[in-house]
Write a structure and sequence with these properties.
Elements: H1 2-8, H2 16-26, H3 29-32, H4 35-61, H5 68-85, H6 90-112, H7 117-137, H8 139-142, E1 148-149, H9 159-181, H10 184-194, H11 196-201, H12 206-232, E2 234-235, H13 242-256, H14 262-277, H15 285-299, H16 303-316
Antiparallel strand pairs: 1-2
């Protein structure tokens, strides 16, 4: 993970024109896709937000948290309950959902961020399961596994409207992650990732840096979860589940952990592959993706993006990244 961040920490700023062309082409999808694949594109945008925000934490500070889906669920249920039961407009509910996810990530981070390593992972794993169990059993509030019906984010239900809302949000999240990584805050993130002791000796408050990444990442997950819930109009305990968490993890790792483009590539690639794998089985695709992610983590930690960059440099005679 560290090696990936060292070599690919910069966004593809030199290819800004290429990104704009891709974005312009992607924004035309509602005019060419049918409802089924347009739904896949919307779900893919949700995963772009989830994978990119988790990448900010794991890829640029080296903290492997399994609570990311739980924060998405907290944002989703906070916004959904406020809008469905109290009549609050979904946009205000969304803001409060993001605030709730940020607050709980602050509380959880303050408790366990000093542990680091496997202890942080295990604590966040337990937190994730606690959140899911509470949501599943508080039937009067969340309607448990039956699911809570919530209103659409704005106006009458429309997949086209949902697509553009998710597109704006996904672009905003990716841009914000890029901006953070290229700011002084991002420099501290990478300093902590590459050599925690050296960073501390230079006056970097390691705990604060880790906590900042944890809270920002959690707030982004809350935003993604809130938007996703209002798009589905039916929120269930699947959103804060470990199944969702491992799906996001596989997307970031296979795409390229510690890169800007990796989580975007991984999110769309695995979402499309999921649609084909479901034709054979709708139960084991996460297991398959998790196994592939383990192979990438062991043999190609830079993911598909890193492999592509290395291959391109080799073809063009440039210096190969290691």
């Amino acid at each position: 993970m560290q090696a990936a961040a060292k070599d690919f920490s910069k966004p593809l700023g030199g290819e800004s024109a290429g990104w704009l062309v891709i974005l312009a082409g992607f924004s035309c999808l509602p005019f060419v896709l049918g409802p089924y694949w347009l739904n896949s594109a919307i779900v893919g945008l949700f995963y772009v937000m989830m994978a990119s925000s988790w990448n900010l934490l794991a890829g640029f500070t080296g903290q492997v948290s399994f609570a990311h889906a739980a924060f998405a669920g907290i944002g989703c249920y906070t916004s959904g309950i406020l809008s469905a039961k109290l009549g609050l407009h979904p946009l205000f509910g969304l803001l409060l959902g993001v605030a709730a996810a940020a607050l709980l990530s602050l509380c959880l981070g303050a408790l366990c961020i000093r542990m680091g390593g496997i202890y942080l992972s295990l604590t966040t794993l337990a937190f994730s399961e606690i959140v899911r169990i509470i949501i599943q059993n508080e039937y009067d509030v969340t309607r448990g596994t039956m699911g809570l019906v919530v209103p659409f984010i704005v106006g009458p239900y429309s997949k086209t409207t949902a697509f553009y809302i998710m597109l704006v949000a996904a672009v905003g999240v990716v841009w914000l992650v890029s901006w953070i990584i290229n700011s002084d805050m991002g420099l501290r993130f990478r300093a902590v990732l590459n050599d925690e002791t050296a960073a501390q000796s230079l006056g970097v408050n390691v705990t604060r840096v880790r906590l900042n990444a944890f809270v920002i990442s959690g707030a982004m997950a809350g935003l993604a979860g809130s938007l996703y819930g209002h798009y589905l109009m039916l929120i269930t305990p699947h959103i804060p589940s470990l199944d969702m968490m491992f799906h996001v993890l596989a997307m970031a790792v296979i795409g390229g952990l510690g890169t800007m483009a990796g989580p975007v590539v991984g999110a769309f690639l695995l979402e499309v592959l999921s649609e084909f794998v479901r034709e054979f089985s709708d139960k084991y695709h996460v297991l398959v993706f998790a196994c592939v992610a383990l192979v990438f983590a062991r043999f190609a930690p830079q993911g598909l993006v890193g492999l592509s960059v290395n291959w391109w440099k080799k073809v063009t005679g440039g210096k190969r990244s290691t």
